[in-house]
Amino acid sequence: MKNIRIQIVEDERIVALDLKQALEALGCEITGIVATGPAAIELARQSPPDLILMDIHLEGPMDGTEAARMIRAAASVPIVFLTAYAEDDNLRRAAASAPYGYLVKPYEMRELRATLQMALSRRTAELDIESAEERLRLAVDAAELGVWEWDTDSGHLKVGGHFSRIVGGAPTTFLEGESALLHQVHGDDRALLVEALQQPGMACATVRLQRDAGMHLWAEIHAKRHGEHRVVGVLRDVTERKEMEEKLRQASVVFRTTAEGIAIMDSQQRIVSINPAFTLLTAMEAEEVIGRTPDEVLHARRHSPVFYERLEASEHGYWNGETVCLRQSGERFTAWEHVCAVRDDHGQVVQYVLAFSDLSAIRDAELQLNHLAFHDALTGLGNRNLLAECMESEIERSRRSGIPIALIFIDLDGFKTINDTLGHAVGDDLLKQVAQRLRSTIRRADIAFRLGGDEFVVLAPDMLRVEDGAGLADKLLRAIREPLDLSGHKRLVVSASLGIAVFPANGEDVDHLIRAADSAMYDAKRRGRNRYCFYAPEMAERVHERMRIEQGLRHAIEHHELILHYQPVVALPSRNIIGVEALVRWQHPENGLISPARFISVAEESGLIEAVGRWVLQAACEQGASWHQQGHTELTVAVNVSVRQMAAENFIQDVSEALSSSGFAPQFLELEITESLLQELELSRRVLWQLRSMGIRIAVDDFGTGFSSLSYLKHLPLDRIKIDQSFVRDLPGNTNDMAIVRAIIGLSKTLDLEVTAEGIETEAQLTFLTVQGCPMGQGYLFARPMPAAELNTLLVAPRP
Question: pTM here?
Answer without folding.
Answer: 0.43
